[in-house]
Amino acid sequence: MITIGIKDIIDILLVATLLSYIYHLMKRSSAANIFTGIIVFIIAWIVVSQIFNMRLLGTIFDKLVSMGMIALVIVFQEEIRRFFSSIGTRSGRFKFLGRRNKHNSNHQDIMPIVLACKKMSHDKVGALIIIEHSVGLREYISSGEEIDAKVNNSLIQNIFFKNSPLHDGAMIIRGKRIVAAGCILPVSHNADIPKSLGLRHRAALGISQKSDALAIIVSEETGSISVAENGKFQLNLLPDELETLLTTN
Predict the structure, then answer these.
(1) Judging by beta carbons within 10 Å of its beta carbon (0-12, 13-18, 19+), is residue 89 exposed, middle or buried?
(2) pTM
(3) DSSP classification of residue 31
(4) What is the pLDDT of residue 86?
(5) CB 140 within 8 A of CB 207
(6) Among 28-32, 52-56, 239-243, whose mean pLDDT is lowest?
(7) pLDDT, the chain, mean
(8) Who has greater pLDDT, 93 or 64?
């Protein structure tokens, strides 16, 4: 007779939560179907090996599982990295909470960004601004030109001016400082991204999938303002909506 205790119920809930969390991470990179296939395979392996005790088929499944672990690390290396980065971000959030709130609650710190985006939106000047949070962006900062200047409305507009040599890359802001511009970011290959969105939007989504940074995009074609955070877009924002988002983020 099978008895299920409170420990078993907690165990099942934890496994279900973990699988759900991993599924949502995979979904951001269009790997959800592969992950579903893996779950189905694991269930079949358990049924064959543990329930029906089919030795031959069970042995084949055992070999596939042992070899498949290495293959999974190779195939899902980006998702695995994001998984542990997400865990590290959440566990370290309390450590950085005071610093982040201090920066984001200061209205004077965000207004130059909002005003610059409003003007660039009106003039249809393309821009990509990344606001660093608790996950460091050192590798992306080093790909551009390091600046280390105070966040300034005019400076932001000058950097993204169409004839500027840095206008095609991303600007990275840390706290109250512009630390770099012209930075190269990872591009998201998510198949769910609308075809109307260009390379800036894909780069913004890519960095939001790899870190907890907030990415602001100004479209060169339409002048629309969008934000990417946690692997999701908020499209066609008004300047007031952007200000509210930056204030509360």
Answers:
(1) middle
(2) 0.64
(3) -
(4) 61
(5) yes
(6) 28-32
(7) 81
(8) 64
The pLDDT value recorded for residue 33 is 66
Choose from 62-71, 77-86, 131-140 the range with maximum mean pLDDT: 131-140
The tokens describing 76, both together, are 């899902």
At 194, list the tokens: 């609308």
For 167-233, the DSSP string reads TTSEEEEETTEEEEEEE--PPP--TTS-TTS-HHHHHHHHHHHHSS-EEEEE-TTT--EEEEETTEE
For residues 233 and 249, what is the distance between their CA atoms, to the nearest angstrom?
14
Nearest partner of 145 among 183, 110, 103, 174, judged by Cα: 183
What length is written for the chain? 249
The beta-strand segments (E) located in 10-80 are: none
Q: Which residues contact 203 (CB under 8 A, 6 or more apart)?
A: 128, 170, 185, 186, 187, 188, 215
* pLDDT at 96 exceeding the cut of 50: no
Q: How far apart are CA 227 and CA 214, in angstroms?
A: 7
Nearest to 45 by CA among 24, 30, 59: 59
DSSP H or E run through 127:
strand 127-131
Give the model's pLDDT for residue 84.
67
| Residue 77 amino acid letter | Q
* Separation in Å, CA 99 to CA 3, 95, 102, 106, 142: 49, 8, 5, 11, 23
